[in-house]
Specification:
Low-confidence stretches: none
Radius of gyration: 50 Å
Shape: rod-shaped
Length: 197
């Protein structure tokens, strides 16, 4: 990730040499990320340096022309130079006004881009948190289901023990009833024997 404006300038120069347009998005991608605001400020200086270099190059007077003008007269060159300076000054003023308008719009766009980036990061963070919450709830459901299965097994065992106990009680009741009948028979037999005596 490019961290200095010199590194960003080098990326833009390399892209221009390859015939690519060094837009903010393209430079940010080539740099491996970074803040739009930081990259934009560096690119703004890069464009100003480039414009100055082109302007200086365009204002350069070839030696051949200088020789001809010296022969024709310094006054002609002075007049031509004065007119050129006025035109350049007018172009500079126009360019400055356009650059100020563009800079204002660019600053607003960059601020919006940074805001959207931050919001996207928050959305990603919230999404990851929700995913973790869902996984935690699924795990809790699985644990609850496991506990319920264990309770069902224990309930089944308790039901079996209850059924067995119920059968034993019924059997004991039958035996008690049988014993009671036998006691009644014995008591009745004892009375009969006593009456016969």
């Amino acid at each position: 990730m490019a961290s200095t404006k010199e590194e960003i300038w080098k990326i833009a120069d390399d892209m221009e040499k390859r015939g690519e347009k060094p837009t903010l998005a393209a430079v940010r991608k080539a740099a491996g990320g970074g803040s739009y605001t930081t990259i934009s400020e560096a690119m703004s200086e890069w464009r100003e340096r480039k414009d100055r270099a082109e302007l200086e190059k365009a204002s350069f007077v070839p030696e051949e022309i200088v020789d001809v003008l010296l022969v024709a007269g310094k006054s002609i060159w002075k007049t031509a130079s004065g007119r050129a300076d006025k035109e350049v000054a007018g172009l500079k003023d126009e360019l400055k006004a356009k650059q100020e308008a563009f800079e204002k719009e660019r600053t607003e766009t960059l601020a919006l881009a940074d805001q959207l980036t931050q919001e996207l990061e928050l959305v990603k963070s919230d999404s990851e948190k929700q995913k973790q919450d869902c996984e935690k709830r699924l795990q809790q459901c699985a644990e609850t289901e496991k506990a319920n299965a264990k309770l069902r097994i224990e309930n089944a065992k308790l039901q079996e023990r209850y059924d067995n106990a119920e059968q034993r009680i019924q059997e004991m009741n039958r035996q008690i009833e049988k014993l009671q009948s036998q006691l009644l028979e014995l008591a009745k037999g004892g009375k009969d024997n006593h009456g016969q005596k």
